[in-house]
Amino acid sequence: MIKPFSFTGAKKIVFGRGSFSTLPAYIRELGGRKPLVVMDGNLYACGCGEDVAKVLGDAGIGFVLFDKVRPEPELELAEEGTKVALAEKCDSVVGIGGGSALDCAKAVSVLAANKGKAADYLGLDKVPGPGLPKVMVPTTAGTGSEVTFTAVFVRKDLQKKEGMNSPYLYPEVALLDPMLTLSLPPEPTATTGLDALCHAVESYTSVNASPVSVMVSLQAIRLIAENLRVCVHNGLDVEAREAMLLGSLYAGLGLANAGVTAVHSLSYPLGGRFGIPHGLANTLMLLPVMEFNLPAALGKFSLIAEAMGESVAGLSVRDAAYLALEAVESLVEDCGIELGLEARGITEEDIPGLADAALTVVRPLENNPRRVTWEDAVELYKRAF
Ligand SMILES: [Fe+2]
Fold first, then answer.
1. Are the beta carbons of 104 and 80 closer than 8 angstroms?
2. pLDDT tens digit string along 119-175?
């Protein structure tokens, strides 16, 4: 029997080389005349800002810029952006950048329209009504935020990361132009790409996976395994960048519908307490969690191995499943990411506190194919040490 399911995402997905030039048309289609453009300041300063100003300026759209986004944004940033949107009477929001900019833009859209406090909207279904119409334009192939209903922030006061999760956060338009990802340097290309791999593997193995979500998750794994190395080491290869952006989109759709699992629960405290960037934190936890989950989902792990190009012909399902671990390990290594929590300044004494914090990230743990106890969480951090 097929478990009943639904499948959602951004209302419209636009994908293609050069599609960024169609941004004004989509803003207009949504009734926007004066969008707030939310961007990372560094991204704006290094050339992308001129492109944005030209594309919108040529179309006669006067926009208001909010470029204070930084990696791993704090909740206050969403409040700050909202103040600008309200003061300038913006009627729409455009997020351009990596996950931080997109998450911030999504939060500003619902805060500006509903006028609540950002902290009140953390959790599931706490946003009372629709936000300002929003278009999301990713410049990294990783977060999938352009098609998800989540915005994640660091809460400095509580030393943790928390998310707003509401259908009102789904963007009206996700506009994906591979040309915008060409200039991303190798390291963030690797860590954001591996974040997408986590979304793909986790959503594929989630107990909430549906017949549609497994299709996009598995195809995401295939695309990422085939193209991430090239993107890291030859960033100007447009075909590889294009395939990675598609893989990241599929992984985001998998994540939006099937959810993530224990990797994200265990990685959030690494970001919240130690400031480890999201993609890297997930990469550090991916292999230990995959190894832990493997006995609970042998068939799926064997298909992950196959999708990642391992030769599984003639192997038992169990032997094939273990090849998934090798495939991920070699991809991480080829991307130049050194594993190990110790190298990131974490000590063994930190582990019990990390395990406490990870168990509070409940929803992804509920999706995990194998139950994770406190003792298991400690063991997983030790394996990642
Ligand atoms: Fe993620």
1. no
2. 999 999 999 999 999 999 999 999 999 999 999 999 988 888 899 999 999 999 999
Please state, in angstroms and as integers, the Cα–Cα distance from residue 9 to each residue in 85, 251, 256, following that order. 25, 11, 7
What token pair was written down for 273?
């307490």
Task: Give the tens place of pLDDT for each residue, 194-229.
Answer: 999 999 999 999 999 999 999 999 999 999 999 999
∠ CA 116-37-41, rounded to 5°: 105
Position of tokens 């390990």? 329
Q: Compute, in angstroms, the gap from residue 369 CA to the centroid of ligand 1.
A: 18
Using DSSP's 3-state secondary structure scheme, residue 97 falls into strand
Ligand 1 centroid–CA 260 distance in Å is: 8
C-alpha distances (whole Å) from 255 to each of 15, 92, 144, 231, 357 are: 19, 25, 8, 22, 22
Handedness of CA 175, 181, 184, 188 (dihedral sign): positive
C-alpha 279 – ligand 1 centre gap (Å): 6
Q: What is the DSSP string of 169-228?
A: GS-SEEEE-GGGGTT--HHHHHHHHHHHHHHHHHHHH-TT--HHHHHHHHHHHHHHHHHH
Ligand 1 center to 17 CA (angstroms): 25
* pLDDT at 46 (0 to 100): 80
Question: Which of 3.40.190.10, 3.30.420.40, 3.40.50.1970, 3.40.50.20 is the CATH number of 12-181?
Answer: 3.40.50.1970
Task: State the distance from the centre of ligand 1 to the C-alpha of 326, rounded, in angstroms.
Answer: 22
Below-50 pLDDT ranges, the chain:
none
How far does residue 194's CA lie from ligand 1's centre (Å)? 9
Name the CATH code of domain 186-383 (choices 3.40.50.720, 3.40.50.300, 1.10.340.30, 1.20.1090.10). Answer: 1.20.1090.10
Q: Tell me, in angstroms, the distance from the centre of ligand 1 to residue 312's CA.
A: 29
Residue 43 pLDDT: 86
Per-residue confidence (pLDDT) for residue 45, from 0 to 100: 80
pTM above 0.85, yes or no: yes
